[in-house]
Amino acid sequence: RTAQPDANMASGFGAKGNEGRCTPLWRNFSACMSTADDPSECAMLRGDYFECLHHKKEITRQNAVEERRATLINEKGEKLKAEIWKDVFDSSWTKVTPKEPKTPKEPKTPKEPKT
Fold first, then answer.
1. Model pTM greater than 0.70?
2. What pLDDT was estimated at residue 8?
3. Gap between the Cα atoms of 23 and 15, Å rounded
4. DSSP secondary structure letters along 28-89
């Protein structure tokens, strides 16, 4: 037995010949619209159907999650970079103790020979 396509939808069939992924939502929305006194009663079903078609809320949420993830990775990377640079410059092999400046020596005066 095959499913009959809905007359108001493009075909009612999915890419693989089965019922389309949004067909049940369309049926619920269509049934609500045909029985509702006020079309606003079906607003949530309409929203669900359009979300199934276009995935706008899903994409918005996914973008927000990815943006937050990238921010956290960058912050973590900056902290790690700062720690590495601190370790590099604070290592004992890089510490140089300044030498005291050389004071000019006084010229030697010839010693008098012993007699």
1. no
2. 54
3. 12
4. HHHHHHHH-SSGGGGHHHHHHHHHHHH-HHHHHHHHHHHHHHHHHHHHHHHHHHHHHHHHHH
